[in-house]
Automatic annotation (TrEMBL):
Protein name per the record: NAD(P)-dependent dehydrogenase (Short-subunit alcohol dehydrogenase family)
Pfam families the record matches: adh_short_C2
PROSITE patterns linked to this entry: ADH_SHORT (PS00061)
Record's keyword annotation contains Oxidoreductase: yes
Family note: Belongs to the short-chain dehydrogenases/reductases (SDR) family.
Amino acid sequence: MRDNADLRSGTAVITGAASKRGIGRALAGRLAASGWRLGLLDIDLEVEKVAAALGAEHDVAAMGAVADIADPESVDAAVSGFEAELPPITAIVNIAGISAPTSLLDADFATWERVMRINATGTFVTCKRIVPGLVERGYGRVVNLGSTAMQNGGGTYSKSTYAASKAAIEGFSRALALEVAPSGVTVNVVAPATIDTDIMGGRITDERKPAFLAQLPVGRLGTTREVAALIEFLIGEEAGYITGATYNINGGLRIG
C-alpha cells in the first residue's frame, strides 16, 4: 500500500459532469484548478467540450467521454480511453443521476426502472469497472452521491422511486467500503438536500423558491460549490481514515 500518496498525480473520474449548473461540473472545475487530471463521463455530448475547456484553462490533462453509465460496454469503452491517455485513476465520483417527483400511486414501472437504472445501476457499473484497478494499485477514493431523500423518504421534488434509488446507493457504498478498506480504498456517500441544480426540475425560480426554502433552517438553497468542496476533501489525501460514512449537506433539513 502506498503511504502519503498525492492523489492529484492520478486521475479523478466524474460522472454527470456536463450540465452547466450541476454538481459534477462544479467539481470538475474545482479539481482542475487544484491540479487534478480529469476523466469526465456524461451521456451529454457537451462533456467533451467541458473537458477540453477545463484542460486548457487550468493546464491539466482532461478527457471527456460520452457514455451511458448503466451500460457496462459503454462505460468500459470510455474508461479504457481514460486509462490509455491519462495517469492512473485514483478517484471516482458518481454524480450522474435523475430525479422523479412522481408518487408511487402515479408512477409506472418504466419510471421505476429508469430511475433505478441510472442512479443505482449506473453507480454499480462504474464502480465495477474502476474499483478493481484502485484495489490492485492499493490506493483510491470513491464518493457516491446520495440524497437527504433517502433518509427522509423523499422531498419537495422527489418521491419514493428516487428515495429508493438513493438508499440503494448508500447501502451499496457501505458494503463496498468494508470490502475494499484493507486495500487502501475508501468509499463514502455525500447526501445533499436542496441544491440549486437542474435535477430539481429546472432552475428554482422566485415562484418555486418558497416551497423549497420552507424546509431549510438555514433559510437558503445550497450551492454546487459547497457540495464540490466537500467531495474534494473526501477524495483528498487527508481523508484516508474516513470510509463507509454518509456526509449530510442539507442546510439543517435533517439533523443527525
